[in-house]
Structures
1.
Amino acid sequence: MSQPALLHSRSALLPSTSRASPPSPPHLSRTRRRRRCGVVMASSTTAPAPAPAGLKEGIAGLYDESSGVWESIWGDHMHHGFYDSGEAASMADHRRAQIRMIEEALAFAAVSDDPAKKPKTIVDVGCGIGGSSRYLAKKYGAQSRGITLSPVQAERGNALAAAEGLSDKVAANAHVSLQVADALEQPFPDGQFDLVWSMESGEHMPDKRKFVSELARVAAPGGTIIIVTWCHRNLEESETSLKPDELNLLKRICDAYYLPDWCSPSDYVKIAKSLSLEDIKTADWSENVAPFWPAVIKSALTWKGLTSLLKAGWKTIRGAMVMPLMIEGYKKGLIKFTIITCRKPGAA
Ligand SMILES: C[S@@+](CC[C@H](N)C(=O)[O-])C[C@H]1O[C@@H](n2cnc3c(N)ncnc32)[C@H](O)[C@@H]1O
């Protein structure tokens, strides 16, 4: 799972002020000591804490264990669906809503369908079993590379790609290949990909700045970066942290889903700006995903859902048990389902 050290320079992406690390002022050190799971404190986008021990192994284990259950009930897309506000949806609509999420994200980022401008190389960062990788490769006739921490997901996703004739390098324009690798140390050279795609993996990243800077590093000049992720609400001017009950709610979600510190949409914007990324846009889609968790809970409470959960194991059961907390987080305005898109400077 671990990758060899990257040989290429990432510092070219950073503004000169970010290249050297000056000693932390005392107030920042205090802020670092106050960090806890569930929130990134106001100034911590520039000062990430070390990743919690065992985080990567926990994430890999969770998805190794649960991906088969998810696929058998929900199919190959392991992300929220996008619904019209207030829409009541049947099970068949949910799969459509997951595809719509992909299309809405592409439209929001203004990814072109024009044969001369459409993406030809794509990386799917935190690819699950490659639902997005295959969809995007087929849509654009592109070469898609996917990375995940879960060996089970990589193997299953490659099998699905092979079954769809997407792993034959010679025959196909569209090609998909998934591998086990860490998003924070991607096994790709600089400037490779026209489209850098992260659908609901950012929330697992212990260092959001490193995460975004890796996305930017592997993007081709002019390439589009799309991050769709769970955030906590923006802090008010007067706040330095979320409220204790909000922190407590996020902590319970973090423990079950192997999530490190969360950050806010404006933290992502700050990071993207500090990396000199262009055309930075963000939107809150929390209302558009509202039917999703109630539907997942309903499917877990069927005979098939319950028996699959029991067979899968404790991590999966624990994940299912905190699903109502996601609904609570959205209802309280604490959890924000967020899209952030931007472009790497340079010729498209
Ligand atoms: C909720 S799933 C989303 C999967 C996929 N994007 C989709 O929409 O179907 C989260 C994914 O992020 C991956 N992930 C989490 N942390 C990662 C990391 N540090 N490096 C690579 N992948 C990671 C997990 O292995 C998993 O595949």
Note: Confidence is low (pLDDT under 50) at residues 1-46.
2.
Amino acid sequence: MTRKAHSPLDSQRPPSVQSPLETLVAQADSLAGVQQLVVGCERCPRLREHCLATARDKRRAYRDWTYWGKPVPAWGDSQAELLLIGLAPGAHGANRTGRMFTGDRSGDFLYRALWEAGLASQPEGTHADDGQMLRRVWMTASARCAPPDNRPSPKELQQCQPFLRRELQLLPRLRLVVALGGIAAVSYLRLLQEQGELRTLARFPFGHGRLYQFPKAAPLLCCYHPSQQNTSTGRLTAAMLADLFRQAATWLDDPAFPHPGVTSLHLQEQAKGRPR
Ligand code: SF4
């Protein structure tokens, strides 16, 4: 049984102006190589200072921890079919543990939903050596350093884009991108725009459960970010998140996905017609 694979971004096409780091990232020949470059990155002084200050000052509950404090690399299954894009590391979560979505409430919510969908080996992610494994999923973010107030600036997001660009190129089996929040969706859409897959982002408004398809690139499935702001208000429930990832896993099991003609529908509308 063959599955449709997407190579959404042309690795031979260089961005117009490249910094030395961008050149190194573009030349990285593996996801591990990208991870290494992420960890050593110092491009955004404001974010680096914030991460180090948070690691030094610590939260009282974690005063016995040695915080990671460095940029947090993406992680997961190097043969992933699903790319999961978050916003940025949590100051006392991934910035503490060194693994994305690990050690805070957003991660608790997310890993449980992935586990329920069969995309993670454990319902929790507490620390980098907890035995958690992602299945079919590569977990990344729009920015790799924890930003003050969870808000990276447009320039900081742009400076972090080369890592996402290269990860997309290094995932040959990719079939679906799940964006956690509007900023993550825009990060992916901007890369598609750069590659000529779309002209304007205005045709792709963010909405939980919306699925967008493109001529060559992997489809985009939008999902509310599992931030405390969303989960504590009920905007995003555990059931909603688990449903979305179950749907995503069903699509990955379907060799005919993405179905032609489906361009932008809400998850529930999609679910009505999904193969059983
Ligand atoms: S946010 Fe990205 S580009 Fe900026 S310093 Fe961190 S890793 Fe580097």
Note: The longest strand covers residues 82-86.
